[in-house]
Design a protein that fits this description.
CATH architecture: 3-Layer(aba) Sandwich
CATH topology: Rossmann fold
Strand order of the largest sheet: 3-2-1-4-5-7-6
Distance between the termini: 11 Å
Number of strands: 7
Radius of gyration: 17 Å
CATH superfamily: LmbE-like
Largest sheet: 7 strands, mixed
Mean pLDDT: 97
Order of helices and strands: EHEHEHEHEEHHHE
Bound molecules: zinc ion
Structural class: alpha/beta
Helix content: 40-55%
Shape: globular
Number of domains: 1
Low-confidence stretches: none
Number of helices: 7
Length: 234
Amino acid sequence: MKVLAIICHPDDMELTCGGTLLKYKKAGHDVTVCNVANGNMGHYSIMPEELRAIRRKEAQKACDVAGFKSVTADIDDLTINSANMEHVRKLVRIIREEKPDLIITHHPNDYCSDHRETERLVFKASFDATVPHFMPEAGEAVDLAPLYYADCDWGVNMIPTEYVDITDEMDTKEKMMACHESQVVWLREHDGYDVIVEQRKQAAARGTQCGVKYAEGFTPCLASGRLRTYRLLP
Ligand SMILES: [Zn+2]
């Protein structure tokens, strides 16, 4: 199976679905992570162009730890817009190239407007990629992929309907998050928490809900054409 996680910033994948992607990889599936935003605004002292390059390297490093392919739509922070057809076209190109059997993205209730726009963009682009007369220059139309929403930051306003046991993947998930050195500092200064510590707490809370040590929670997108008769999550 080909799994495509289309997630907003470099470092969002680790928190929301990193353990689950590791589990897919262990089971022999292909995993690609697409960052929609380049993360160029996430620091107090490093300027946007320099930060953009740093964060690309951090994302690549984290994906290398896991054996995932890393790609980016390279859209500036705070400008993601699902009504912007240039942004839609960027994602259609990536989806047609990757031909995913499953897409994972942010939950519609997540806290950050860029995360919410990413989810809308993914919903639109993953449908548009199936239409043969739309952007024929970007390759053949693909099948409509099932879509799963990953957890919101700290689980706020998100009730999972499916859980993945990530107990065996927790340490690697943490190693991947630690690759985002610029963000460990930014989140401490801007948001007032240690993301490494909080990530483990969120996985522990989701684990308690389903009877394992560490877990990640998901809900499926309930739209026609996206549903399957079998479980898609590992
Ligand atoms: Zn983010």
